[in-house]
C-alpha cells in the first residue's frame, strides 16, 4: 500500500509588525509636518520674523538667566562660607584656651573637656536641630583621644581624606561634600582648622548643611526661568503684532497687484491714516491709476493702429486693382514701345507684384493682431507640401545658382496642420535660404517622431551674427539693409511665419554663425492641440563648427554673444532638451 503525503498548507504571507506599522505612520506624519513647517517658513514673512525673534530672545534671556542664577548661587555660598569661617575662627580660639590646660593627651579630664567644648561650640545642646555638626578629632593621638561630634553622628564619611590631610598639616581648608548624617542625604560645606595645644594639635571641623541655600538658589532659578519664558513669549507676541501691522498691508498690496496683473485694472487699496503704510497705499493706488490710464491709452492706440492698417489695406485694394489692370495692359504691349518705356513697364509690373504681396501680408498681420486668425487643421502629408514649395522656388534657385537638396522620408509624414499656412512658412524659409545662400546648396530636411514633426532649412551663406537669431522674426528687420535682393520681399514673411507656427502650437527657431550659414527649424505637434516638449530634428546642424571644441552629440552647450555664434541651444540629435521649458 502506497501512502501519498498530503501537501503542506500554503504559508500565509508575513504581516508587518505593529511596531513597524506605527513607525511608518509616525514617519509619514513627521514628514508632512516638516514639509508644512518648511512651506510656512518660505511663504510667511511673519512666521520668519516671529521665529527669529523667539530664537534670538530665548538665547539672550537664557544667557542672562544663567548669569543671574549663577550669581545668586555664588552669593549664597559666599555668605555661608563667611559665616562658617567666622564661627571656625572663634571656635578654634575657644578650644585652644580650653585644651591648653593640659600638657599630656592621656590626662583623665581631657576627654571630658573635649566633650564639653564640642557641645558648647554646637550651641550648648547636643540635640540641637540647626543641622550644623561640630567635630573634634586628634589623628595624632588616636590611642588617647576619641573623636567627638555634636550631634553624635558619624562624620568620617563626609570629611574627605584630602581635607583631613590638609588640616593635619596645619592648614585651614574646606570642601563641599554630599553625605548622609541625619537620615537624609544632604550637601555639606565642611571647614576644618587645626587647634594648637600644649601637648600637640587637634582638628576642629564644622559641617554646615547647604539645603537652605540650595532651596533658595532653586527658587531663584525657577523664578528667573519663569520670568524669562514669560518675557520671551511676550516678545514673540509683540513681534507677531508688529509684524502683522506691517505684513497685512503688504499682503493686501500683493493681492491687489495680482488682480491688476490679471486684468482687473479698477482694483485699489484702502487708505487709512497718515503713516508710512498709508503713504504706501496712496502711492500704490496712484501708480495703479496711472497704469490703468496708460494701458487703456495703449490699447486704444493699438486698436486704432490695427484698424488703420486693416482699413488702409482694404481701401488700397480698389485703386491697386485699377492700377493693376492698366499696368497689365501696358506690360502686354511693352514690345511696341521703345526700350526705356518697355523697361519701365517691367519695373512697374514687378513693383505692383511686390505691392500686392505687401498688402496681403499686412492684412494677415492685422488678423493676427486682432486675434481673428483661424487654424483649419486637417491630416496632411507634408512630403508633397515640401515638393510644391521646392518646385515653386526652383526658378529663383536656378537664377541665383543655388541647388536645393531634399532629405525626406520614404513614407508619408502625416500631421494635423493647416496646409496653407505650413506651405507659406516653408515658402518664406526656403525663399530666404535661397536668397542668402551665396550660390551654395540649400538642404531641406523633414523628420517625425511620435509627438511632433519638424522641418529644417539649412543654407551656407553669410550666416547670422550673435543675437540676430531672435531679431530675424521682427517685422521689417533685415540683417544687411544695403544688400541687393532678388525677390523684393516685404519684410513681414518671417513674422507671419512665426505667428503661423504659434497658431499651430509649434516653434519656429533660428540658428546662425558668421561664415557658416544659418538653419531654421519649424516644429509642429503631430496632433492638433498637443503640447510640444521635444523636436525630432536638432536646431544646430551637424556640420557646424562649435566654439571651444564643444560637444556635438549629447549634453547641452549654450552659445552666447561672446562665442562667435548665435543659437538658442545645442542638444543631441534626437531631442532638444533645452526647448522643454519654452
Automatic annotation (TrEMBL):
Xref: Pfam families:
HAMP, HATPase_c, HisKA
Subcellular location, in the record's words?
Cell membrane
Question: Which enzyme class, named as a word?
Answer: transferase
Q: What residue stretches are annotated with the HAMP domain? A: 244-296
Reaction catalysis annotation: ATP + protein L-histidine = ADP + protein N-phospho-L-histidine
Q: Which SUPFAM superfamilies match?
A: ATPase domain of HSP90 chaperone/DNA topoisomerase II/histidine kinase, HAMP domain-like, Homodimeric domain of signal transducing histidine kinase
- Would the keyword Cytoplasm turn up in this protein's UniProt record? no
Family matches, as NCBIfam families = MtrAB_MtrB
Q: Which residues form the Histidine kinase domain?
A: 311-528
The protein's UniProt keywords, in alphabetical order, are: ATP-binding, Cell membrane, Kinase, Membrane, Nucleotide-binding, Phosphoprotein, Transferase, Transmembrane, Transmembrane helix, Two-component regulatory system
What transmembrane ranges does the database entry give?
A: 49-69, 222-242
Q: Name one GO molecular function term.
A: phosphorelay sensor kinase activity
State the membrane topology. Answer: Multi-pass membrane protein
Principal localization? membrane
- Organism of origin: Micromonospora sediminicola
Q: What is the protein's given name? A: Sensor histidine kinase MtrB
Gene Ontology cellular-component terms listed: plasma membrane
EC no. given is 2.7.13.3
Amino acid at each position: 500500500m502506497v501512502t501519498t503525503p498530503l501537501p503542506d498548507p500554503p504559508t500565509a504571507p508575513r504581516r508587518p509588525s505593529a511596531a513597524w506599522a506605527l513607525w511608518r505612520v509616525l514617519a509619514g506624519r513627521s514628514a508632512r509636518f516638516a514639509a508644512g513647517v518648511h512651506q510656512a517658513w518660505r511663504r510667511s514673512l511673519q512666521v520668519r520674523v516671529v521665529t527669529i525673534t523667539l530664537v534670538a530672545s530665548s538665547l539672550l534671556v537664557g544667557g542672562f538667566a544663567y548669569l543671574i542664577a549663577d550669581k545668586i548661587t555664588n552669593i549664597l555660598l559666599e555668605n555661608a562660607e563667611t559665616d562658617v569661617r567666622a564661627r571656625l575662627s572663634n571656635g578654634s580660639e575657644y578650644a585652644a584656651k580650653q585644651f591648653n590646660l593640659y600638657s599630656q593627651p592621656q590626662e583623665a579630664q581631657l576627654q571630658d573637656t573635649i566633650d564639653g567644648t564640642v557641645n558648647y561650640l554646637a550651641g550648648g545642646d547636643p540635640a540641637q536641630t540647626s543641622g550644623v555638626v561640630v567635630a573634634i578629632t586628634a589623628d595624632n593621638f588616636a590611642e588617647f583621644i576619641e573623636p567627638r561630634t555634636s550631634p553624635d553622628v558619624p562624620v568620617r564619611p563626609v570629611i574627605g581624606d584630602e581635607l583631613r590631610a590638609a588640616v593635619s598639616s596645619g592648614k585651614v581648608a574646606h570642601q563641599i561634600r554630599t553625605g548622609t548624617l541625619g537620615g537624609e542625604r544632604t550637601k555639606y560645606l565642611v571647614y576644618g582648622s587645626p587647634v594648637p595645644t600644649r601637648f600637640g594639635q587637634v582638628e576642629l571641623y564644622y559641617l554646615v548643611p547647604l539645603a537652605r541655600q540650595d532651596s533658595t538658589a532653586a527658587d531663584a532659578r525657577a523664578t528667573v526661568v519663569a520670568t524669562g519664558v514669560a518675557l520671551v513669549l511676550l516678545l514673540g507676541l509683540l513681534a507677531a503684532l508688529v509684524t502683522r501691522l506691517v505684513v497685512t498691508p503688504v499682503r493686501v498690496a500683493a493681492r491687489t497687484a495680482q488682480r491688476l496683473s490679471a486684468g482687473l485694472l479698477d482694483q485699489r487699496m484702502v487708505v487709512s491714516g497718515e503713516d508710512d503704510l498709508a503713504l504706501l497705499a496712496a502711492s500704490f493706488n496712484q501708480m495703479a491709476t496711472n497704469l490703468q490710464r496708460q494701458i487703456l491709452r495703449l490699447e486704444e492706440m493699438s486698436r486704432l493702429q490695427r484698424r488703420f492698417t486693416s482699413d488702409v489695406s482694404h481701401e488700397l485694394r480698389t485703386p491697386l486693382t485699377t492700377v493693376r489692370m492698366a499696368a497689365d495692359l501696358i506690360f502686354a504691349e511693352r514690345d511696341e514701345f521703345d526700350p526705356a518705356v518697355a523697361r519701365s513697364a517691367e519695373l512697374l509690373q514687378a513693383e505692383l507684384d511686390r505691392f500686392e504681396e505687401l498688402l496681403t501680408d499686412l492684412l494677415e498681420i492685422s488678423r493676427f493682431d486682432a486675434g481673428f486668425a483661424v487654424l483649419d487643421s486637417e491630416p496632411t502629408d507634408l512630403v508633397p507640401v515640401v515638393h510644391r514649395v521646392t518646385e515653386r522656388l526652383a526658378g529663383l534657385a536656378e537664377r541665383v545658382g543655388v541647388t536645393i537638396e531634399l532629405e525626406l522620408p520614404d513614407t508619408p509624414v502625416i500631421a494635423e496642420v493647416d496646409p496653407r499656412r505650413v506651405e507659406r512658412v516653408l515658402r518664406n524659409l526656403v525663399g530666404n535660404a535661397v536668397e542668402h545662400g551665396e550660390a551654395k546648396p540649400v538642404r531641406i530636411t523633414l523628420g517625425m517622431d511620435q509627438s511632433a514633426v519638424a522641418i529644417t532649412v539649412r543654407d551656407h551663406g553669410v550666416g547670422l551674427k550673435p543675437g540676430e537669431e531672435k531679431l530675424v522674426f521682427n517685422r521689417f528687420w533685415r540683417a544687411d539693409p544695403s544688400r541687393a535682393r532678388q525677390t523684393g520681399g516685404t519684410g513681414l514673411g518671417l513674422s507671419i511665419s512665426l505667428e503661423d507656427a504659434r497658431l499651430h502650437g509649434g516653434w519656429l527657431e533660428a540658428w546662425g554663425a558668421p561664415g557658416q550659414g544659418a538653419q531654421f527649424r519649424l516644429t509642429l505637434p503631430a496632433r492638433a492641440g498637443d503640447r510640444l516638449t521635444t523636436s525630432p530634428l536638432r536646431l544646430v546642424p551637424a556640420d557646424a563648427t562649435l566654439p571651444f571644441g564643444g560637444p556635438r552629440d549629447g549634453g547641452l552647450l549654450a552659445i552666447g554673444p561672446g562665442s562667435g555664434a548665435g543659437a538658442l541651444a545645442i542638444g543631441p540629435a534626437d531631442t532638444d532638451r533645452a526647448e522643454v521649458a519654452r
